[in-house]
């Protein structure tokens, strides 16, 4: 196979050999971008990363191909666009306004949404709250956890004050089992927490590998489109800040949201990186408390509430995030320096040679530093 030749088309076989029915075959897949090769290579020709190729075994005909064919033959028929019925009212609008806004005005039926973020940032918390809201307002929701038992989910739900009859929980890692339950239950919405923990029998590489993530997400995408069930996937972020198999996964899904924040601050920002159904400019601001994620409807007030007017080196700056102006505090911390040639990013105090050691906002907004 010529590397990268099938990169852009997720619905097609990744190379000609895949159509030959034989036993499992060995491939080498880049764990960063999903590029494949029949031989191990040190540097990925697609993304340029070193030592990212891992041996994986895949069946000659992945299950997603056969299901793709089945869906296309049994349900999809060409029809005039004018006859397609969809209005904005079909979206599931949420009382959580920050989330509603980031999604572009609510959840689109049949959409596949990826929610990424650092470990412990609050992904499961946010999605359990979302699942509870949709269950209360619209109908049954299936929350599938491959990481926690149903008892552990119950523990979190109790802490968040969630006790829904229509919120179904399932601890399962096998994608075939998950799909079977989804097809049987036909919920209004489903959450898979996380995509790195589910596996497909047809792919022998470990859960979380690029092949597994791609095949599982591809299969869930087909299910979402054919059943109109919106599916939220939780994705873990690696140390570089990307989701495992990032490009592969981000191409497949409709919407990519990142939950960001700093461990020692309670504010969380939900940012849209890709959205097929809305703007990627909008952000949602939340505060993480023991009772869960609470919306921050006036972030400027929250960011500036601890501000001391008497301190030197502080300035309030207006930053435009999407359609929303935010007031954030910039702090300049200065220190005496023996160097004469230091470059400052922020005005230095006059007189002594000084350099800026850090420029930071008062909240969990991005930091910048210079020497
Ligand atoms: N009893 C508690 N009181 C207050 N905050 C808590 C409590 N238990 C957990 N938390 C907070 O919830 C966070 C974990 O939230 P959550 O499990 O939703 O994160 P996550 O992003 O899903 O994590 P992971 O990547 O491990 O799945 C913890 O980091 C902590 O800040
Ligand atoms: Mg979690
Ligand atoms: Zn690569």
Set out the fold topology:
Elements: E1 25-30, E2 36-37, E3 53-58, H1 63-74, H2 97-102, E4 112-117, H3 123-137, E5 141-145, H4 150-160, E6 167-171, H5 175-185, E7 189-193, H6 210-227, E8 231-236, H7 246-252, E9 255-261, E10 267-275, E11 283-289, E12 292-295, H8 299-304, E13 314-321, E14 324-336, E15 354-361
Parallel strand pairs: 4-8, 4-9, 5-6, 5-7, 7-8
Antiparallel strand pairs: 1-2, 1-3, 9-10, 10-11, 11-12, 13-14, 14-15
Helix pairs in contact: 1-6
The chain binds adenosine-5'-triphosphate, magnesium ion and zinc ion.
Helical segment tally? 8
Q: Which series of helices and strands comes N to C? A: EEEHHEHEHEHEHEHEEEEHEEE
- Unreliably modeled segments: 1-21, 62-73, 342-371
Residues in helix, %: 10-25%
Question: What is the H level of CATH, i.e. the homologous superfamily of the largest domain?
Answer: P-loop containing nucleotide triphosphate hydrolases
CATH level-1 class of the largest domain:
Alpha Beta
How many structural domains can be distinguished in the coordinates?
A: 3
- Please count the beta strands (DSSP E, at least 2 residues each): 15
The dominant shape is globular
Structural class: alpha/beta
- State the major sheet: 9 strands, mixed
Give the end-to-end Cα distance, rounded to a whole number of Å.
48 Å
Provide mean pLDDT, rounded. 78
Widest sheet: strand ordering: 6-5-7-8-4-9-10-11-12
Strand content: 25-35%
What would you say the CATH architecture of the largest domain is? Answer: 3-Layer(aba) Sandwich
> Rg from C-alpha positions?
24 Å
């Amino acid at each position: 196979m010529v590397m990268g030749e099938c990169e852009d088309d997720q619905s097609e076989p990744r190379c000609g050999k895949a159509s030959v029915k034989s036993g499992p075959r060995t491939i080498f897949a880049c764990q960063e971008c999903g590029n494949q090769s029949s031989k191990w290579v040190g540097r990925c020709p697609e993304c340029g990363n070193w030592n990212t190729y891992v041996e994986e075994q895949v069946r000659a005909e992945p299950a997603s191909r056969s299901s793709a064919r089945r869906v296309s033959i049994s349900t999809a028929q060409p029809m005039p666009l004018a006859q397609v019925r969809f209005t904005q009212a079909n979206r599931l609008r949420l009382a959580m306004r920050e989330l509603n806004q980031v999604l572009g005005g609510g959840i689109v039926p049949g959409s596949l949404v990826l929610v990424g973020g650092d470990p412990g940032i609050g992904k499961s918390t946010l999605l359990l709250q979302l699942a509870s809201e949709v269950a209360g307002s619209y109908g049954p929701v299936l929350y599938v956890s491959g990481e926690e038992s149903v008892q552990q989910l119950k523990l979190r739900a109790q802490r968040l004050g969630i006790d829904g009859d229509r919120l179904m929980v399932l601890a399962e890692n096998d994608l075939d089992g998950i799909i079977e339950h989804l097809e049987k239950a036909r919920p209004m919405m489903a959450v898979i927490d996380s995509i790195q923990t589910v596996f497909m029998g047809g792919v022998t590489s470990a859960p979380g590998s690029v092949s597994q993530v791609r095949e599982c997400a591809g299969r869930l995408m087909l299910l979402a489109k054919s059943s109109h069930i919106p599916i939220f996937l939780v994705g873990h972020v690696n140390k570089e800040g990307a989701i495992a198999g990032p490009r592969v996964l981000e191409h497949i899904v409709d919407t990519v949201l990142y939950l960001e924040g700093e461990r020692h601050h309670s504010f969380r920002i939900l940012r849209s990186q890709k959205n097929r159904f809305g703007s990627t400019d909008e952000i949602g601001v939340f505060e993480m408390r023991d009772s869960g994620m609470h919306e921050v409807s006036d972030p400027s007030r929250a960011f500036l509430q601890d501000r001391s007017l008497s301190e030197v080196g502080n300035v309030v700056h207006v930053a435009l995030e999407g359609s929303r102006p935010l007031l954030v505090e910039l702090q300049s911390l200065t220190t005496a320096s023996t160097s004469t040639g230091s470059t400052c990013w922020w005005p230095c105090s006059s007189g002594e040679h000084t350099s800026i050691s850090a420029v930071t906002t008062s909240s969990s907004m991005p930091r910048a530093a210079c020497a």
